[in-house]
Amino acid sequence: MKQMVLTGIRHMELREVEKPRITGDRDVLIRVTKVGVCGSDVHYYTTGRIGSQIVDYPFAVGHECAGVVEETGSATTRVRAGDSVAIDPAMPCFQCDQCAAGRFHTCRRLRFLGCPGQAEGCLGEFLVMPETSVYPLPAGMTQDEAVISEPLAIGVYAVRQSGEIRERKIGILGAGPIGLSVLLPAKAWGAASIYVTDKIEARLALARRLGADWTGNPDAMDVAAGINAEEPLQLDVAYECCGQQDAIDNAIDILKPGGKLMVIGIPEADRLSFSIDKMRRKEITIVNVRRQNECVDAALDLLQTAGNDASAMITHRFPFSQTPEAFDLVSERRDGVVKAMIEFGDD
Fold first, then answer.
1. 232: cis peptide before it, omega within 30°?
2. Which residues in 145-179 are b (16+ Cβ under 10 Å) and which e?
3. Is the model's pLDDT at 346 over the cut of 80?
4. Which of 9, 177, 205, 265 is least crowded, fewest Cβ atoms below 10 Å from its Cβ?
5. Is the pTM of this model over 0.90?
6. pLDDT tens-digit profile of 241-259?
7. Domain 153-288 has CATH 3.40.50.720
8. Third-level CATH fold of 2-136+309-343
9. Domain residue extents for the chain
């Protein structure tokens, strides 16, 4: 089969590799149809690492994908050949202390698609996954939506982790796919006011279309001052979704005393800093969000709700052979890109 692999910083090659085979009785062989380009994939493309996770070349990235079941192991029960499926890229062991505690996303032996040292990614024509990571699509759901269900599950998890959202006033710092994936459940579950910031105007326009009450560009204005002018008592929760120091600073400035900062974005830097004076005086709670945990079904349910046009995040499409161009576009944030989608087929 054909597979797109990283061979160096900002270098990819299309290679012919052996097609994966089912080896376990609960394995599922999937023909990949679509792959979304995620910011974490781009980190590996532009720097070769995320923290201690360092690429050993050649390596295939990619973890947001959808496909069609080609074959199943003898003990599978939830999918069968021909089913269109969404895929949870996490493959926990279900046996360690973390799994026993219900923390499958921090499994001691977790394997995750496109994560160095764990599992090759989904940028290839076929993929084998355990049945526990494969979700049959509800009737009428598109494979575009199946791909979006992966970042949306992170947004669902982040909103759940922040506590009761109904009637809360929130800020979302960064309106890329993760920020918008926070916006959708927050809106659906009754947030009172949603303030969104980003440095790309096209993303702010999409945030307004999806339900943001206020948007601001930190390159054009003091967004913290703007939000505080609208909300003198400040916000209950801020979701940092871009991994940038200035977004962290803005989040602390817009939170009310007793507020909560949800850190979701993945920074390129090894360290970020916080104003301990402001944080201590306000008694701000900081919560780190690690991917998602058991939220795929909720994301799929949300996608079926009228008005949740999550597929609007898809702004650009590329054939599989043009994967490097897709990664360049996303890494350089050109042309108002939100989500670039790579599509398989007659290429």
1. no
2. bbbbbbbbbbbbbbbbbbeebeebbbbbbbbbbbb
3. no
4. 9
5. yes
6. 999 999 999 999 999 999 9
7. yes
8. Quinone Oxidoreductase; Chain A, domain 1 (3.90.180)
9. 2-136+309-343, 153-288
